[in-house]
Amino acid sequence: MATPMKYICFVMFLAILSIGFFSQVDGAGECGKTTTPDKEAFKLAPCASAAQDENASVSSPCCAQVKKIGQNPPCLCAVMLSNTAKSSGIDPKIAMTIPKRCNIADRPVGYKCGAYTLP
Known about the structure:
This protein is mainly alpha-helical. The protein has helices spanning 2-22, 37-42, 60-69, 73-80, 83-87, 92-95, 98-101, and strands at residues 112-113, 116-117.
Protein backbone atom coordinates (compact mmCIF):
# COMPACT_ATOMS: atom_id res chain seq x y z
CA MET A 1 0.00 0.00 0.00
CA ALA A 2 2.90 2.36 0.71
CA THR A 3 4.39 1.89 -2.77
CA PRO A 4 1.27 3.05 -4.70
CA MET A 5 0.99 6.09 -2.39
CA LYS A 6 4.65 7.00 -3.06
CA TYR A 7 3.99 6.58 -6.77
CA ILE A 8 0.91 8.85 -6.62
CA CYS A 9 2.82 11.48 -4.64
CA PHE A 10 5.70 11.35 -7.11
CA VAL A 11 3.32 11.75 -10.09
CA MET A 12 1.58 14.67 -8.35
CA PHE A 13 4.95 16.27 -7.66
CA LEU A 14 5.92 15.96 -11.33
CA ALA A 15 2.57 17.40 -12.43
CA ILE A 16 2.95 20.43 -10.15
CA LEU A 17 6.55 20.90 -11.27
CA SER A 18 5.56 20.82 -14.96
CA ILE A 19 2.70 23.28 -14.44
CA GLY A 20 5.14 25.65 -12.76
CA PHE A 21 7.67 25.19 -15.55
CA PHE A 22 5.22 25.80 -18.39
CA SER A 23 3.50 28.77 -16.79
CA GLN A 24 6.67 30.78 -16.23
CA VAL A 25 6.64 34.38 -17.39
CA ASP A 26 9.29 35.32 -19.88
CA GLY A 27 10.53 38.26 -17.83
CA ALA A 28 9.57 40.88 -20.39
CA GLY A 29 8.59 44.20 -18.89
CA GLU A 30 6.75 47.14 -20.37
CA CYS A 31 9.62 47.86 -22.76
CA GLY A 32 10.42 44.29 -23.78
CA LYS A 33 13.01 41.73 -22.83
CA THR A 34 16.17 43.64 -23.70
CA THR A 35 15.64 46.97 -21.94
CA THR A 36 13.97 48.66 -18.99
CA PRO A 37 12.06 51.92 -18.57
CA ASP A 38 15.06 53.38 -16.73
CA LYS A 39 17.40 52.54 -19.63
CA GLU A 40 14.92 53.97 -22.14
CA ALA A 41 14.62 57.16 -20.06
CA PHE A 42 18.24 58.02 -20.88
CA LYS A 43 17.26 58.13 -24.57
CA LEU A 44 14.85 60.95 -23.71
CA ALA A 45 17.62 63.23 -22.47
CA PRO A 46 16.86 65.73 -25.30
CA CYS A 47 13.40 66.11 -23.72
CA ALA A 48 14.63 67.19 -20.28
CA SER A 49 13.72 70.87 -20.50
CA ALA A 50 10.44 70.18 -22.33
CA ALA A 51 9.44 67.70 -19.61
CA GLN A 52 10.02 70.28 -16.86
CA ASP A 53 8.49 73.36 -18.50
CA GLU A 54 5.34 73.17 -20.61
CA ASN A 55 6.34 76.42 -22.37
CA ALA A 56 9.77 75.12 -23.43
CA SER A 57 10.16 74.19 -27.07
CA VAL A 58 10.42 70.50 -27.89
CA SER A 59 13.46 69.59 -29.98
CA SER A 60 13.29 67.35 -33.03
CA PRO A 61 15.62 64.74 -31.42
CA CYS A 62 13.21 64.64 -28.46
CA CYS A 63 10.21 64.18 -30.75
CA ALA A 64 11.98 61.43 -32.69
CA GLN A 65 12.70 59.46 -29.51
CA VAL A 66 9.19 60.00 -28.12
CA LYS A 67 7.70 58.82 -31.42
CA LYS A 68 9.92 55.73 -31.39
CA ILE A 69 9.22 54.79 -27.77
CA GLY A 70 5.57 55.81 -28.15
CA GLN A 71 5.00 52.94 -30.59
CA ASN A 72 4.65 50.96 -27.34
CA PRO A 73 2.39 53.11 -25.09
CA PRO A 74 2.96 51.03 -21.92
CA CYS A 75 6.71 51.51 -22.38
CA LEU A 76 6.39 55.27 -22.95
CA CYS A 77 4.25 55.51 -19.83
CA ALA A 78 6.72 53.48 -17.77
CA VAL A 79 9.61 55.60 -19.04
CA MET A 80 7.90 58.87 -18.13
CA LEU A 81 7.14 57.53 -14.65
CA SER A 82 10.51 55.77 -14.17
CA ASN A 83 12.89 56.39 -11.30
CA THR A 84 15.39 57.86 -13.75
CA ALA A 85 12.84 60.39 -15.01
CA LYS A 86 11.78 61.27 -11.46
CA SER A 87 15.37 61.75 -10.28
CA SER A 88 16.00 63.99 -13.30
CA GLY A 89 13.30 66.38 -12.14
CA ILE A 90 10.79 65.39 -14.80
CA ASP A 91 7.23 66.51 -14.09
CA PRO A 92 5.07 63.59 -15.31
CA LYS A 93 2.09 65.86 -15.93
CA ILE A 94 4.20 68.00 -18.29
CA ALA A 95 6.03 65.00 -19.78
CA MET A 96 2.70 63.50 -20.83
CA THR A 97 2.11 66.55 -23.07
CA ILE A 98 5.26 66.00 -25.15
CA PRO A 99 3.69 63.64 -27.76
CA LYS A 100 0.99 66.24 -28.42
CA ARG A 101 3.52 69.10 -28.48
CA CYS A 102 5.51 67.09 -31.03
CA ASN A 103 2.37 66.84 -33.19
CA ILE A 104 2.66 63.05 -33.30
CA ALA A 105 -0.47 62.09 -35.20
CA ASP A 106 -0.64 58.46 -34.07
CA ARG A 107 0.01 59.18 -30.39
CA PRO A 108 -2.05 57.18 -27.88
CA VAL A 109 -4.59 59.93 -27.05
CA GLY A 110 -6.45 59.17 -23.83
CA TYR A 111 -4.03 56.44 -22.75
CA LYS A 112 -4.07 56.13 -18.95
CA CYS A 113 -0.61 56.36 -17.49
CA GLY A 114 -0.82 56.01 -13.74
CA ALA A 115 -2.70 59.07 -12.47
CA TYR A 116 -2.15 60.82 -15.80
CA THR A 117 -3.81 60.64 -19.21
CA LEU A 118 -1.97 61.33 -22.45
CA PRO A 119 -3.60 64.34 -24.15
